[in-house]
Amino acid sequence: MSGRQVDRGRLADVVLAAVVGALGTAVAAFDDDTTALDLVLVVLASAALAFHRAAPRAVLAAATVLGTAYVVHAHPGPLSALPVLGAVHTAARVGHRGVAAAGGAVFLAGYVATGPGTQHAAERAGLLAGWFLCAVVTGLADRNWQAYLRQTEQRALEAERTREEAALRRAGEERLRIARELHDSLTHSISIVKLQAGVAVHLARKRGDEVPPALLAIQEASGEAMRELRSALQVLRADEPAGTPALLVERARAAGLAVELTVTGDERPLPRAVDRAAYRIVQEALTNAARHAGPAKVRGRIDYGTRNTTDHTTDHTGDRMGELTIGVDDDGAADPDRPPVPGTGLTGMHERVSALGGTLRAAPRAEGGFSVRARLPLGDTV
Asked: What is the per-residue burial (b if ≥16 Cβ within 10 Å, else e) of 185-224?
């Protein structure tokens, strides 16, 4: 909250206390039986309202004690309840419903006990009881409205962040798709051209024939094209994650998502492609949970496995590399009888995992909620 907002709130509190005090003292001044003590009690009870934001319960206690002492001593009319009504409203507004109701009840008891036992006094007590009920109800309504506004603002911020992340993710996925297409089509064709040109040059030189300049130009141009294509593919694949899965979890918690992350196995540096894929899978799973699961709990698990496995790929040094297992489960509103239609995010996850030779399962759980399971081999990735 800015200093200007704090100053504005403080000024509003002082104005509230001044208005209530002015009304209370004006009404008391027209009563011939009002004494200096009565005026002091009214002023103090009203002045306490200026501090209702900082200490609502203390202000309620002070206003109730001072207001009750005033009605016991002076037997005024219903307007004497204004300071206590304000304190009851502000206490209920911050969630102290029981304390607010108790304060109003104490004041009403003092008002009824000291008033004359006539029907008119009973009617005025009933009127005051209605006022206090309205003060509690309006305080609660204001509290709910403020909570709704805060929640709406938080959702707007989360939606904006989600849109930005989705746009970045789609751009990265499109770059990877283009890179795969270029790699699968042009790289193969240019390699064949370069290979055939190289074989032709070699055979010509072996036979002692003069190598045609066009053939040498083809060999040189194909080699240069291969180098430029590799550079272009490196640029397209420059999709480095801006952090780690643990950082994603911290961001999700800051956004209000109840998420836990467990890491098991022999944690170690991963191949770059696997590291990128793991980051994007966790990012997409947490984003989907925040958007679709509702107020759910999310549990994430990353298992690096061990190097001494016997049923997985082996790197060029002979060391068993194993596989990386990623799991993200939530207990949200997903229904196994109504599987979701795969969107861009789930499709992108499947493509990333398939490109690395892994497996992915993303579907509702039998016990409710949604589950994402990915297994990525940790061998060398081309």
From this structure: eeeeebeebbeebeebbeeeeeeeeeeeeeeeebbeebee
**Number of Cα atoms under 13 Å in the Cβ half of residue 256:** 13
CA distance 301 to 352: 19
Chain position carrying tokens 């970045």: 168
Tally of CB atoms within 10 A around 83? 30
Residue 110 is inside which H or E element, if any? helix 97-114
Q: pLDDT (tens digit, 9 = 90+) per residue, 58-85?
A: 888 888 787 778 777 776 766 677 788 7
Higher pLDDT, 287 or 128: 287
- pLDDT tens, residue by residue, 302-360: 998 876 544 444 443 333 358 899 999 988 877 777 777 776 677 778 888 888 889 99
The answer for residues whose C-beta is within 8 angstroms of residue 152's C-beta and 6 or more apart is none
Q: DSSP assignment of 148-194, as one string?
A: HHHHHHHHHHHHHHHHHHHHHHHHHHHHHHHHHHHIIIIIHHHHHHH
Is the pLDDT assigned to residue 247 strictly greater than 80? yes
Instruction: Select from 84, 182, 177 the least CA-distant residue to 139.
Output: 84
Name residue 362's beta-bridge partners: 372
Q: Which residue has the tokens 């002076």?
A: 74
At 165 the pLDDT is 66
| 271, 353 contact by CB (below 8 A) | no
Output DSSP code: residue 256.
Answer: T
Judged against a pLDDT cut of 70, whether residue 204 lies above it is answered with: yes
CB 146 within 8 A of CB 107: no
3-class state of residue 260 by DSSP: strand
The pTM is what? 0.40
